[in-house]
Amino acid sequence: MSSTAEHQHPPTQHGDDAAPRLGTLRTLWRLRAYVGPAMPAFVGSMLAALVAQLIALTIPQVLQQIVDGPLADKDAAAVVPLTVLVFVLGAIEALLYGLRRWLVVGPGTRVEARMRNALFAKLQDLPVNFHDKWPSGQLLSRAVSDLGLIRRWLSFGLVLTIVNLLVIIVGVGILMSMNWLLGLIFLVCSLPLWWAGYRFEGRYSEKSRLSQDQAGDLATAVEESVHGIRVLKAFGRGKHALSNFRSQAESLRNTEIAKAKLDASIWVWIMVVPAIGLSICLVVGIWLAAQGQLSVGELVAFFATATVLAWPIESIGFMLAFALDARTATDRFFDILDSENTIVDPDEPQRLDRPRGELAFTDVHFRYQDSPERFGDLLDGVDLVLTPGETMALVGLTGCGKTTMTALTTRLYDVTGGSVTLDGVDVRAFKREELRTHIAMAFEDATLFSASVRENVLLGRPELAGDDPTVVAEAERVLEQALAIAQAAFAYDLPEGLDTRVGEEGMSLSGGQRQRLALARAVAAKPAVLVLDDPLSALDVTTEARVEAALRDVLASTTALIVAHRPSTVMLADRVALLEDGRITAVGTHSELLRTSDHYRFVITSLEEDARMTGVVDDREPDPDVDRAIERELTIVAEEAAETRAERATREEAAR
Predict the structure, then answer these.
(1) pLDDT exceeds 60 at position 651
(2) Whole-angstrom distance, CA of residue 193 vs CA of residue 316
(3) Residue 448 pLDDT more than 70?
(4) What is the DSSP string of 557-597?
(5) 541-555 and 624-655 helices cross at what angle (nearest 10)?
(6) How far apart are CA 274 and CA 510, in angstroms?
(7) Residues 258/174, Cβ–Cβ less than 8 Å
(8) Which of 314, 516, 594, 614 is in Cβ range 3.0-4.6 Å of 488 for a Cys bridge?
(9) Which region among 51-60, 65-74, 434-443 has the lowest average model confidence (pLDDT)?
(10) Residue 341 pLDDT exceeds 80
(11) Which residues, at least 6 apart from 171, have a Cβ–Cβ distance to it below 8 Å?
């Protein structure tokens, strides 16, 4: 397998500090929390299967009575009732097998649903750094194929394994009671099966885990190729992707072949050993019958009973392989459930009923968990205060930690030192759900869900969902306002208007359209603090200017932290913070920093250069009317925003 594919394996598979794996029984025992409510159905299914098998063991006893009785006496009339009895027993056996299946179908699927819900809830709860390390295909294969395998084992493998072991014990006891010598021969000849099964477990378990991990890698490869299909086509790398896929598929195929060989090896023992045992029993049984120590009916009953035991004995290998696959799937399931969540809600959370929007970074340090020790902290003592209603632009060279700094506000990551506070309260003191209602984010890489435009924009306002006329009217008002601010009126012209489904990750829309809807989503949340990570990068200059003009109205009453990658974005801000070498080295207005900071001038020059190199420049045909209209609109909104801030400051001063 290629090195790339190897790195796709889940991180729990590597490292000396990985927890030791539990034994098969102890691992499978962990499923009891999810199986508990369905246990009566599984027990009922086991009882039905056990009674059916015991009935099957009873039929040879009836055959013995037929052979040694009516057939030996040549009494044809006496055969009929015994034959009817065999038919009735067979019919009851068939009905019980049907009952066994019926009992476990519904409860088995409910167990799978509970496990899948628990897995999804855990994935939603785990921090971003967990998802940074885990390939999506690995998570997908655990949520779908692994849980399906566990359901089948619980509904079929577990039930039949327990029943077949009990039937083997009872059947051997019956054989010993018929003739101890033949029963002992049968038992001794079965012992090599247990030895072969013990050796089989260790080797098969290793291959089973590798196979399921490789299946996850393959799912990741498919998911990445589908999501990146535009890139692959644009660069003509379809054949390259296919080559990598074939390599991974071939590795999985080789592992499956190795599993099949191991499976075949155990089946050799399962098929050959009982056959040898029965052959020896047949020879000895005929000799005993010839000596008069065994009747013909007893010999027939013995081999009929042995035939009934053939399936339970032959199923040992299949059931063992099934159990090992289920154990591996269970291991992979609990790989996720056992993952430590380092970002949790406090035991006694604090609340803010009316947040003012003061956001402060105090001596903030941060480093990623996988960052080598030789590197210092990415953020190394950041101090910054945003006053209520202030718009702060955050600028710095690429890779200096601007996006990371914004992620700390909503605890997508937690600081490794210092604190981030909202209105003087450490963000770690809030419940995460409440914190994220006070602070909303819009990312540069805008992600939309496979839902309608309406559902995407109102994602942060769950209280606006419902059929109540008042709620519907408020939802429409918020939606209209958010789309107007984000200049996303194009949504009304989509095939089904605001009810148009935007497709997976919004890929049916352009990059600029996705960004505008993501910005509308953040605005619609009505947060106390708005964090924008360069949300206008995909917009043309004219649209950007109109969005910025509309945003000024929102930012007049909302605290905002804006990561700026364009000089034009800086112009939205009241003040600008310069991030350099992990620290805020300068704070002031754009004009002040241009006069006093050499590094700021260098950064601004770099931003302008990047804009020219990436083609994000104002390359419109000169249109004096449009330019004057935009300039006039910006001026009016800026004046209104200044008046709003002044009025707000006056009210706060009066309140104090």
Answers:
(1) no
(2) 8
(3) yes
(4) SSEEEEE-SSHHHHTT-SEEEEEETTEEEEEE-HHHHHHH-
(5) 20
(6) 67
(7) no
(8) 516
(9) 65-74
(10) yes
(11) 57, 305, 306, 308, 309, 312
Local structure of 633: helix, strand or coil? helix
Cβ burial of 459 (10 Å; 0-12, 13-18, 19+) is middle
All residues at 6 or more sequence positions from 8 whose CB lies less than 8 Å from its CB, including other chains: 135, 137, 138, 216, 217, 220, 221
Q: Decide: helix, strand or coil at residue 152.
A: helix
Where would I find the beta strands (DSSP E) of 387-447?
391-395, 417-422, 425-426, 439-442
Amino acid letter, residue 428:
R
d(CA 161, CA 152) in angstroms, rounded, equals 13
How does strand 439-442 pair with strand 529-533?
parallel
Per-residue pLDDT tens digits for 490-546: 888 888 888 888 866 666 787 788 888 888 888 888 888 988 887 777 677 677 777
What pLDDT score was predicted for residue 275? 80
At residue 15 the predicted structure's pLDDT band, cuts being 50, 70 and 90, is: very low
Strand 559-563 vs strand 529-533: parallel, antiparallel, or unpaired?
parallel
Find all residues with CB under 8 Å of 443, minimum gap 6, and list them. 518, 533, 535
Nearest residue to 538 via CA among 553, 517, 559, 552:
517
Other Cβ atoms less than 10 A from the Cβ of 587: the count is 16
Residue among 331, 388, 269, 374 at smallest CA distance from 31: 331
Q: pLDDT over 90 for what percent of the chain?
A: 18
- 298 band by pLDDT with thresholds 50, 70 and 90: confident
Q: Give the chain's mean pLDDT.
A: 81
- C-alpha 389/C-alpha 574 separation (Å) is 10
CA dihedral 232, 456, 140, 410 (to 10 degrees): 100
Identify whether the C-beta of residue 543 lies closer than 8 Å to the C-beta of residue 512.
yes
The model carries a pTM of 0.76
Q: Which of 49, 253, 14 is nearest to 161 (CA)?
A: 49
Let me know the angle formed at the C-alpha of 637 by 550 and 353, rounded to the nearest 5 degrees: 65
Q: pLDDT band at residue 79, thresholds of 50, 70 and 90?
A: confident
- Of the pLDDT bands very low, low, confident and very high (cuts 50, 70, 90), residue 196 is confident
| pLDDT over threshold 90, residue 305 | no
399 Cβ contact partners less than 8 Å away, ≥ 6 residues apart: none
Cα distances from 61 to residues 95, 134, 344, 365, 378, in angstroms, run 21, 59, 65, 80, 80
Task: Round to whole Å and give the CA distance between 441 and 105.
Answer: 45
Amino acid at position 218, single letter: L
8 Å CB contact between 146 and 208: no
Residue 16 pLDDT > 50: no
